[in-house]
């Protein structure tokens, strides 16, 4: 089951997700992962289209399991979500990402921003607003330098509750990205009312962009939609120079992907992007 991941770590593949016994074991281990210091964040750079210097990062969670090695979030986030453990884990992520951003600012990269992913359960949690506020205060950060990424399907699940949550978060000044955009079923009416600042085009549409006319048409309409709603448009999963050029020409604002920078440890992020 163990395979070498694309960035050199041993990742467990989805064949492992099937096993109930493995899941139970992971759940038991995950309960102790925070106190045992086994969770860590990797950071993937975000680049302004046409620019060569990153202006921010997305924090991506990893679990360095004592026996199984480095686990991908696709393996353990669903377990954390179902068990409710995602709430304390999510708070740990917010705090660790804010601490890292503070360290980068203090080291002279004061214009960098940070994006943090929120799971559906976190997004529905009444404690979210206070934990975001707490993390920003503890690390003396300007809320505008933090982006919270919520998937389109999470944001569309309970539209009224989502609007309330998004309004409370944006009132604080944090930025909101609608992640995996194009895979859910947003009504344009709700999208218009939603106080988001960023649309992230799902990488499924980027993959065959240069070869598939339908994908190119979808990407170009998402970009046009984002522009008309005055949202920043981000493309994820940029793996080739041709995709980078194509997305730049279509007017995409920000690019992210292996071609520009893989998720990496904090120290490496600084040496690659300063
Ligand atoms: P996502 O938010 O859509 O994150 C993008 C995923 O695409 C990341 O996978 C990233 O490593 C990968 N990626 C980036 N560039 C490329 C590329 O050019 N090609 C390809 N094929 N993939 C690329 P990762 O790190 O395994 O994370 C998977 C998902 O796990 C994330 O998807 C997000 O939904 C979730 N996740 C990660 N960290 C957290 C977290 O702290 N909290 C929560 N709630 N979810 C998280
Ligand atoms: Ca994301
Ligand atoms: Ca995404
Ligand atoms: Ca995704």
Describe this structure in words.
With 274 residues, the protein is of the alpha/beta class. The protein has twelve helices and eleven strands. It has helices at 20-33, 73-83, 86-106, 120-123, 128-138, 152-157, 159-172, 188-193, 203-206, 213-228, 241-250, 266-273; strands at 2-4, 10-12, 39-48, 56-65, 69-71, 113-117, 146-151, 175-181, 198-201, 232-235, 254-255. It has an eight-stranded mixed barrel, surrounded by five helices. It has a two-stranded antiparallel ribbon with strand order 1-2. Helix 1 crosses helix 2 (73-83). The longest helix is centred in the middle third of the chain and has 21 residues, at 86-106. 38% of the residues are buried. Residues 1-8 have low confidence and may be disordered. The site of one calcium ion has 4 residues, from loops. Residues 179-180, 200, 236 line the site of one calcium ion (CA). It comes from Stenotrophomonas terrae. Residues 23-274 form the EAL domain. This is cyclic-guanylate-specific phosphodiesterase.
Secondary structure topology:
Blueprint: E1 2-4, E2 10-12, H1 20-33, E3 39-48, E4 56-65, E5 69-71, H2 73-83, H3 86-106, E6 113-117, H4 120-123, H5 128-138, E7 146-151, H6 152-157, H7 159-172, E8 175-181, H8 188-193, E9 198-201, H9 203-206, H10 213-228, E10 232-235, H11 241-250, E11 254-255, H12 266-273
Parallel strand pairs: 4-6, 6-7, 7-8, 8-9, 9-10, 10-11
Antiparallel strand pairs: 1-2, 3-4, 3-11, 4-5
The protein binds ligand C2E and calcium ion (3 copies).
